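FAQ: What does the model actually see?

It sees only this:
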Amino acid sequence: MKKECVTMLLAGGVGKRLGQLTKNLAKPAVPFGGRYRIIDFTLSNCINSRMHTVGVLTQYSPFELHKHIGIGKPWDLDRMEDGLTVLSPYMNSEGGNWYLGTADAITKNINFIERYDPKYVMVLSGDHIYHMNYEKILQQHKETNADATISAIQVPWKETSRFGILNTTESMRIYEFEEKPKHAKNNLASMGIYIFNWSILKRYLEKDAMLLDSDHDFGKDVLPAMLADGMNLYAYKFEGYWKDVGTIGSYWEAHMDLLEENIPLSMSDNEWLTYSHDSNFGPQLITENGKATDSLINNGCIVSGKIDHSVLFENVHIDKASSIKQSILFPGVRVGSNVVLDRVIVKENVTIPDHTVLVASPNEEPIVVSEEYVKEKLQPMEESPLLKRMTSNF
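And it is asked to produce this:
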C-alpha cells in the first residue's frame, strides 16, 4: 500500500546521563509529567499530525517500552493496513546485529519502508518533550524542493556543545552542519527531526553502510555527506516549547516547567492532546491534614502531608506531617510521616521511611532515590529540631 510519508521513530536510546532513571529502562519509556512516558509526546504528535504509518525502532531494555506501546491503541495507531509497528534488531539468513547508529537503524529496516513505497520518510526521536505539527515541516519540505529538511530550535549558547548545530543562509538553506561543536558559530540546534526524499535517503544509507570507518549516524555521517555533495538541505525553525530531557537536571527542569502558568506546552490543551494509557485508580484525595499548591497530582494519590510545586504520578501516598517541595514522585511511591523532600526524584514503588530528610541545594542536581538508595543510605532519623522547623515552616 503506497503512502506519501512513512514515519520512523528512534526509541532505542540508553540515556546514560539519566543514571538511575534509565537503569533497566529505555529512555523513551521513562515516566514523565504525572501520567505519561516520554515517548507519548512523539507518538501523540504523530497522530495529531495525521502521520498514521509509524515504525518504532527499539533496542535497549525494551520490555517496559514494548509493554507500554503495545499495538498503539492509545494513539489510534492500532490499524490493520498501516498503524504502528515495533521494529527491533533481528537475525536473518545473512546474519544480524544491534543497530550501530541512527542511520544504521533505518538502513536495517529498508524493507519495512519499501512496503509502503513512500515519497518521503520522516525520522523522529522518541526522547524529547514537545508538541509539534509535523505536517508543517512536510509542507515546507515540499515548498523549498528540499532533499532533506531538519527541524531546528534556538538553544542557550552554553548548551550548543550538546547538539548538532545548523549554519544557514537567510532562506534557511543549510550550508554547514557541526556535530556537537566546542565553539559553535550560532545556536540553531537540530532537534533530531528529519524529513527526507526517500529515493535520495535510501541511496545515501546504502552507501554509508559500505563504509567501514562510518559511525552510521545521521549527524556525523549522512547529513555531512549530503551537504558535501551539494544536496538541498533546509532548516525548519520551530518556535514552541521543546526539551531534551537527557540529564537529571533537564528532566527535573522540564517537570518544573509544567507547573508554570504560561508554558507553551499544556497538558490540558484540547486542540493538541497528549495520549497515554489510562489507569483504573480512583480520584486523588487530599485529607483534612493535607495541602497542595502549584502541583500536578494524579489519580489514586492520597495526600495527608503538604505538597508544593511538585509532580505526583498515580497511586502516591503522602503520610501526615510530611513536606514535599519541588519534587517528582513516580507511581506507587509511599512517603512516611515527618518526611522532608526538596528537589528529589523518587522512583517507582519506593518507600521513604519516616523522619527522612532529603534536600538538594539549587547548585546540585536533584537527588534520585531508588530502592538501592533507600537500603544503602536512608536510615530512619529521630525527630530533630531541624525536621520540626522544616515541616512547621512549609
